[in-house]
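Possible race condition, two jobs.
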Amino acid sequence: MPIEQEIGATGRVIQAVGALLGLMPALALLFGLVEIPPSLADLIRVLSFFITVGVILGIILLRAPIRRMPGGRAALLMIAAVLLGSVAATSYWIFAERHLIAVKRGDTTEYFVVPLNPSPRIRKAVEPFDGDYLQAIYVSAQRENLRRWMEQESVGASVLMLVLLVLANVLLVSGVVGGAWKVAGSMRKAPKDG
């Protein structure tokens, strides 16, 4: 089979896979595979998967400009994307370390997000535990109220974690995949130049 036909066939497979991936969220909701509303962990998993696929498809669509880009500029962009993605990933990890609390209940784990600016009622509930949210959630007499209050007030911190994670994902994937695409294009041109 000539290379043009192989590339065409590969393109049709990518289009079919893309169409199927586009249907997945609707099918998951239809068949009850995704909780409504989803937990933060579920939301992060779904977003991470689809953003990664979107970035890869975007790079495939930008293949011609990527191939034409000078190698030095492509290398700088790749390095910058990977470095900025690493900073975003590290920032997410540091922030999540301080604001994400995992509470085990038997075989399940519940996640609670410490608000950016906890209300006086939350601060008062964790004050007897020296600000230790995990201990307060486990043993405080107000633990059920504390859980509910944290869920109500955690929107800002949850959004910030999602933004940092999405930014890290986009930058790291685009840097690595875009760089790999440029290298593959350069390697393909090399025999013709020589």
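Job #2 (started ~2 s after job #1):
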Amino acid sequence: MAAEAIVEPVPYVDVNGGQLWYEERGAGDPVVFLHAGLLDSRQWARQLQTFSPRYRAIALDARGFGRSRQPAEPYRRHEDVLGLLDALGIERAVLVGNSVGGKAAVDATLAQPGRVRALVAVGAAISGLSFRAYTDEQGERAEAAWNAGDFRGAADVWLEVWAPVSTDDELREIAYANAEIDTDDFELDGDPPAVERLGELRLPTLVLVGDREVQSIVDTSRKIAADVEGARLELMAGADHIPNRAQPDDFDRLVLEFLAQT
């Protein structure tokens, strides 16, 4: 009789009515990585390796992205982050969030400050604060591609704007895999929004932003660093909106040194 194939369990958790996929490696204090828009947990593949010798490194796919299930009802991304901690039995964690993942990390910390040991905001957005990234011409190209069903074309414009340094074949494939996702009808912002509440944060905070970042996110990063008491701002040379991919060695060094100090 032929031996049965061994099927590895798929790491899903049921959170707030949704089913989320995550990956984790290592042991020790938990560090949760939250990805940028149009990407998924694969953004953090290197960090799962480089952080796991010292930490329990966890990367999450937000609803609809990567291998997580599509949303069927309204949800808040930061509540899913806190729900993941509950599902995994994690009392406190470090949150490392990029872009909208950074927004979720900030909102989660404001909602339940006792659950977050330290915060790393990487080119982060803030709930309640709008920003402009695309030029009129780029916006027109992206909208035309989306309306024509050319989702990869729309993703190409996203990469052009947000990842001019970090885009390689792997990152492009991740963006293409998520190109058709549109959760705008389901995803709710933080309530109350974080923009007027950053001064409430009382925890070690590292703010990372690339010198090739869009200006509105540079301004947002400076606001976080100014409003959060004791926050440290680091401008990363040669990095765009995805600095862990554009300058991975510098990113790992800065974050691991920060965590060692805290």
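The chain has nine helices and ten strands.
Logs attached separately.
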